[in-house]
Amino acid sequence: MIQNIFKGIKAYSGTFKLINQLGLWKYFGVPMFISLVVGLLIGLTAWGLGDPIGRFISKIWLWEWGATTFKSISTILGSLIVVAFGLIVYKHMIMAFSAPFMSPVSEKIEAHISGEIHSHRNTNNASQLWRGVRINVRNLCMELLLTIPLLLLSFIPVLNIITSILIFLVQSYYAGFGNMDYTLERHFKYADSIRFVKRNKGVAIGNGIVFMAMLLVPIVGIILVLPLSVTAASTETLALLEAENNLHTKRIDPITEEKISG
């Protein structure tokens, strides 16, 4: 698991070079715009709702002593809760709606890395969008199911340190899951993709750790998070597929230029 997490993180090295080499930036224009707008909306929402939620939380403090301090802490906690849920919704929204743009990116990376023509499942923009929505709605529900109990436990002193780490890892896993599926959708059906990511959850977590960390960088992180994370996920997912012999290739004879099954 730990080794695979580092593999997922290491895959980010060379992503800028690969994007420039293959001229992929043009595919990222719309997703980057979506990412920026949604990120700003979540930030403004957290700013606006932090105080009302904080006041609601502060009502559980029944004593006068320390009430001001607890109210201040509650306001910060309220903003953090909005941000936590906002990030969950954010990443699944941009991943779902960016699917028609990210799938071609993954396919071009696959063609470049393998130097071969691979036999794929037949997909189009509509099916890619539906697949993205379906995967991300499923992941959103699973992530909320795990995150809500952890958030409740975070009210317990000391234990909140552990729950914060676990929440971050859960978010990282599902972020990496979505990035990997841009490649997996060409090779596997819905259920098979879920099983594949579960077998390689360390790589998904590693990819998602950098994804989540980039979101902490104002503006720039939100803009660049998809190009870099999708490129990294594509290269590492292709390596995993090849290791499991799931790349059904058709090699090209250099002389006759005819396809040779392999």
TrEMBL record:
GO biological process: cysteine biosynthetic process; sulfate assimilation
InterPro entries noted in UniProt: CysZ-like (IPR050480), CysZ/EI24 (IPR059112)
Gene Ontology annotations for the cellular component aspect, listed alphabetically: plasma membrane
GO molecular-function terms, A-Z: high-affinity sulfate:proton symporter activity
A Pfam family of this chain: EI24
Keywords, in A-Z order: Amino-acid biosynthesis, Cell inner membrane, Cell membrane, Membrane, Sulfate transport, Transmembrane, Transmembrane helix, Transport
Compartments where found: Membrane
Membrane topology: Multi-pass membrane protein
Transmembrane domains' residue ranges: 27-49, 69-90, 144-170, 204-226
Stated name of the protein: Coproporphyrinogen III oxidase
Organism: Cochleicola gelatinilyticus
